[in-house]
Amino acid sequence: MSKSSAHVDRAVRIELLRAKAALEREALVSSVVGAGRDLTPSALAKDVWPRLASMKGTTIAMQAYHLLRRYPVVGSSLSALALKGGGMLAGGGVMRLLKVAGLGFAGFKALRMVQDARSAPSARALRDEATVQAARRTL
Predict the structure, then answer these.
(1) CB neighbour class for 95 (10 Å; exposed up to 12, middle 13-18, buried from 19)
(2) CA 68, CA 75: separation in Å to the nearest integer?
(3) Lowest-confidence range among 18-22, 31-35, 129-133?
(4) 52, 60 in Cβ contact below 8 A?
(5) Which of 95, 100, 77, 76 is nearest to 85 (CA)?
(6) Distances (CA, A) of 24 to 1, 10, 28, 64, 119
(7) What does pTM read for this prediction?
């Protein structure tokens, strides 16, 4: 009797370990999908925007200063964008026009991302749920 009991106990233990592994895989898939959603440019922009709106001008200036000190590549890129560009194209007006057009395009895309995020949060949740379901099927 103890042999069959030991066999049943072992089978139950194996099933419990399999269930635990399946739950851990599902939690991992859910975490990866959530991290992917949180690291999209629109989610990062939504995260930064309320903080910038609530900050004072001096706080924003200090944050920009610390950012430029920590990442010198950002500062050199901004200074390169600020230069006139007469060396590349004669006149410099063309470069200014390109810069303004680029800034306008970036602003337009940011506005579209904000509008999409406000209008369809449920669509994003459905897409994420579909991704989780597809990942579950592959496990």
Answers:
(1) middle
(2) 5
(3) 129-133
(4) yes
(5) 95
(6) 35, 21, 6, 41, 33
(7) 0.36
